[in-house]
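Bump. Still looking for FTR1 family iron permease structure tokens.
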Amino acid sequence: MLLNTVIIALSDALPIFILCVLLLLFWQNHLASLAQTASFTRPVLKVGGTIGFGLIGAVFYVQQSAQISEWFDFNGLEWMTIALRCLLYVACVLSIIAFNWSIRSRFNFLMLGLCAALILNGSDFLIYILGYWSQSDNTNALIVGATLGLGVCLSFSILYYFLLYQLSLRIPWLITLLLTLYLVGQIIPVVNVLVQIDYIPAQQALWNINNVIDESSEVGRLMRALFGYEATPMLWELMLFLFLTGVPMASYFYHISQKPHKAKETL
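Sorry for the wait, here they are.
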């Protein structure tokens, strides 16, 4: 149970920690200076409120999961998963590419994406914890495993933050790329969910590289959390990955390329 709890904590909590690191760096690199000029106040309180609301939403989602599962011909949980993953992607991508929006609107959409991630991943973790808690007397192993898993997530996120901070000083667009890849990685599993509920047909995998990096290994889990690593992708997944990565990054680079022209026009 101890090992299983650590693995579950890494699978469900690590994506949230990674998202927090990427959002923090995106704020520092691209939005903080704009926030100062726009007199944007109390971002810390808003982040704390978002985290609290997301955790409450995860608890509520777990409590209502039995009723939700009966929706849409007993596919309610699958469609809720799809909705939360799409909300996470759309909210954060809009905050990245909506350059003409106010800083407050862009920040609010980032927080909306964070809230969706907390509900999505937090509910999975709570279901596991509550399920084992009710069926087992070995609560010490459960608590220790959860603590170890969250500790590993925190340690990795600190190292990841400082690594990316140093790299972003030399590569300004790195955080935008990594955040976009993370978001795409979170929405790619929607394809498998749609296949499971027979909404789209299953396809044969284009390739299988589990012998190189196994999805269930530690490295595979980390790569899945970072950018949705898939060892056996279908054509649907590959097309979705290329489209959902290419459009935001093309929009970002186009905006960057237009800055010198706008500066010349101003002069």
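Residues 263-267 have pLDDT under 50 and may be disordered.

Edit: fixed formatting.
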